[in-house]
Write a structure and sequence with these properties.
Layout (H helix, E strand, L loop, with lengths): L14 E4 L6 H10 L2 E4 L1 H20 L23 H12 L3 E4 L2 H15 L8 H12 L3 E2 L2 E3 L6 H10 L4 E4 L2 E4 H7 L11 H6 L3 H31 L9 H5 L4 H13 L4 H5 L9 H4 L1 H23 L7 E3 L5 E3 L7 H29 L1 H4 L16 H17 L21 H31 L8 H11 L12 H12 L2 H10 L5
Parallel strand pairs: 1-2
Antiparallel strand pairs: 3-5, 4-6, 6-7, 8-9
Helix pairs in contact: 1-4, 1-9, 3-6, 4-5, 4-9, 9-11, 9-14, 9-15, 9-18, 11-14, 14-15, 15-17, 15-18, 17-18, 18-20, 19-21
Amino acid sequence: MNTTISNTHPKEIKQVTLGDGDITINEIIAVSKYDAEVLFSQDYRERVNISRSVIEKFLDEERVIYGVTTGFGSNVTETISTEDAEILQKNIIRSHAVSVGEPLEKEVVRAIQFMILANLGNGFSGVKLATLELIRSLLNHQIVPFAPGEGSVGYLSPEAHMALVLIGEGKAWYNGELISGREALEKAGLQPVSLGCKEGLALTSGTTSVTAFASLALFSSIQSAKTADVVSAMSLEALKGTIKAFDPRIHSVKKHEEQAGTARNIINILKGSEIAEKYQNYRLQDALSLRCIPQVHGAVKKVLKDAEITIYNEMNSSSDNPLIIAEERGDALMGGNFDGTFVGIYSDTIAIAMANLAKMSERRLDRLVNFHVSELPNFLVAKPGLNSGYMIPQYTAAGLINEIRVLAHPATIDNTPTCANQEDVVSFAYFAAKKAYQIAKKLEYILGLELMAAVQALDFHQPLKPSPVSQKVYELIRSEVLTVEEDRYFYPDIQFITKLISEGEILTAVELMMGKLDW
């Protein structure tokens, strides 16, 4: 299943066409992070138009359908006249736009909008093609709706803020300026739409925001898990660790392919290392943060593989309610496909997996800067005392790991009924996915801090040479981050290295040398 990191990096994908088959996580990343153009296939357009025609048929027949001719939530018992049905859609957008706090990042908003297009374009939602065309235009014209990101139980409020722009209300960024939704549309040469029956509900319901957050988190997590093999191998090398702990015979007796694959990665990364060769018998065994890299990294990879399948399935599902069925005389099926528990549980699991990867990385970083165990200069600076060296970056990692541990607490085990107890069980998948996204970013920083220290530690092994792979990564870092001779402002160094990780540059450089890492 080619759902995530393929041979084509998302930044190389310039166009994504909806309607020609399943969407991939790479395509979500291409649109959300790298501004790929979104297109609709003819099949996509036809599905949407057929579904909309069914809604029009229902209106002519005056059928009672949730959210079309009835109120929402516990107001389902209130019948809405055909004349008021369109007012109902505008009202839901306005009344539901109540999330608070800091606005969602551009890439998150774009990912949610893309997921809305994918979800509603399956032909089971009854929305108008013109409405989806406007969302597509927002993406392609770089109009980013203002959507506060706090206070969602799984859907509704952030999506409602985004939908306001479609009707010329709300706020949006255009050319870096936060302006009214109507002004943003006008400056881009676009017109607001008048929402028809069912559209307000369709634009705010479903698992679109949950799946968007989870997709971003999963992509970053998979990239970080692979990069962690590289970073940990360089730390093992710099700390005079023994390669014997990665002997394939050890890992062949555990029936976890990810563990054995990780061990192979470490051995292959350190192939040709004069340092690893010299110190392979230096200790009988190393600390667990070095010795158990295959077991812990492997377990993390297994979790991510399982999460990938579930998130991929949700991305390519229909999560609206009611679902509009076009066959025969048409039908509106009222169920609960908007529930995000599938993705929510796996988002919580991703968070736990990333916390385990982070705790390993932070412990290796501590060993690198701690002269009591590293046998290297204190805090990796030649003249400690006068210079603090890399003392405080480990504090940064400690602070980040504390935040990660708190965020790793599962959200989906919680429950607070809403809507006068009509929604008596709530998934809280939104926060589960959101915190997985937040943890993924913090993990990149921790890995960056470890890599920064590992590269500095390798300097103290000269004239012994690291492996060719380690040397390549070393040179990539040293192109901007110079060897620390005395204290300086380290923040730009941290930002540079972390960006190399988040943009996949470290992973790309390594795999160009040695081929794809085992996964």
